[in-house]
Write a structure and sequence with these properties.
Layout (H helix, E strand, L loop, with lengths): L7 E6 L15 E7 L2 E8 L3 E6 L7 E4 H12 L1
Antiparallel strand pairs: 1-2, 2-3, 3-4, 4-5
C-alpha cells in the first residue's frame, strides 16, 4: 500500500493594513510554512529585509536585505 504524503500548508498572517514601506510601522508579512502539523519555519517580509526563522530557532535566522535576497534567488535559478 502506498504511503500518503503529508501536505504542506502555507499560512499568511496579514495585518489589516499592509504598508511594508512605512518606517517602524510594525507591519511585516509573516508566512508560516508547515508540513502536516509540523512547523518548518516562518518567512517574514518587511520594509528593509526578508527573514527566515527555522522552527524552534530564535537565534540563528537568515536575514537578507532585498537586493541580497534577489541576488541569492538569481544565483539559485542558474
Amino acid at each position: 500500500m502506498a504511503r500518503r504524503r503529508k501536505s504542506t500548508t502555507v499560512t499568511a498572517q496579514i495585518p489589516s493594513t499592509v504598508e511594508l514601506t512605512k518606517l517602524k510601522s510594525g507591519n511585516a508579512l509573516r508566512i508560516e510554512v508547515r508540513r502536516g502539523e509540523e512547523l518548518l519555519g516562518t518567512l517574514s517580509m518587511g520594509r528593509g529585509s526578508v527573514e527566515w526563522w527555522p522552527r524552534g530557532n530564535k537565534v540563528n535566522i537568515l536575514r537578507k536585505r532585498w537586493r541580497a535576497f534577489a541576488d541569492m534567488l538569481d544565483q539559485h535559478m542558474k
